Amino acid sequence: MMKTLAQCSLAVLFLMPLGLAAQSPAGSWKLSVPDENGTMIPLYVDIADDGTYTLDFGADGIVDTKGKYSLDNDKMTIQDTEGSDCTEAGVYTFKTDGKTMTMTRISDACTGRGGPDGVIAMEKR
């Protein structure tokens, strides 16, 4: 009984990083966002493990906005640091399966971020 319990405990400890990795937002993502005329344009989002991100509006290879983020379980706080008119923090829940990521606004002082419904859906690129 004790040996089985120890084996189960070890299995949980070894599998725990796999569960955490599945919820990491780090990676290269893509989505489409409307410009000021309502025309949909591609947006590339690169999220680094070091707590930073970049945005490439138009997917032209030029970084337009830089920012930082922090995680607290399934909540992500994001804050643009360069290239944006709004540098206030926004808080979102996020869920990823490695191929897609959905961020849902909890609160955000930057009114344009997250669109009118407050949901950002991205695909891995």
Task: Write structural notes for this entry.
It contains 1 helix and 8 strands; from the N terminus they run H-E-E-E-E-E-E-E-E. The chain has 125 residues and is α+β, with helices and mostly antiparallel strands. Strands 1-2-3-4-5-6-7-8 form an 8-stranded antiparallel β-barrel. The radius of gyration is 17 Å and the shape is globular. The protein starts with a helix and ends with a strand.
Task: Give the averaged pLDDT, no decimals.
Answer: 85
Principal-axis shape: globular
Largest sheet: 8 strands, antiparallel, barrel
Q: Helical percent range?
A: 10-25%
- Determine the strand fraction and express it as a percent band: over 45%
Q: Unreliable runs, pLDDT <50, ≥5 residues?
A: 1-22
Radius of gyration: 17 Å
- Trace the largest sheet across and list its strands: 1-2-3-4-5-6-7-8
First-residue to last-residue Cα separation = 47 Å
* Strands, count: 8
- What is the structural class? alpha+beta
SSE arrangement, N to C = HEEEEEEEE
- In DSSP terms (H or I, runs of 4 or more residues), the helix count works out at 1
Task: Give me some keywords for this one.
single chain; 125 residues; alpha+beta; 8-stranded antiparallel barrel; 1 helix; 17% helix; globular; disordered N terminus
How would you concisely characterize the structure shown here?
The protein has 125 residues and is α+β, with helices and mostly antiparallel strands. It is built from one helix and eight strands, in the order αββββββββ.
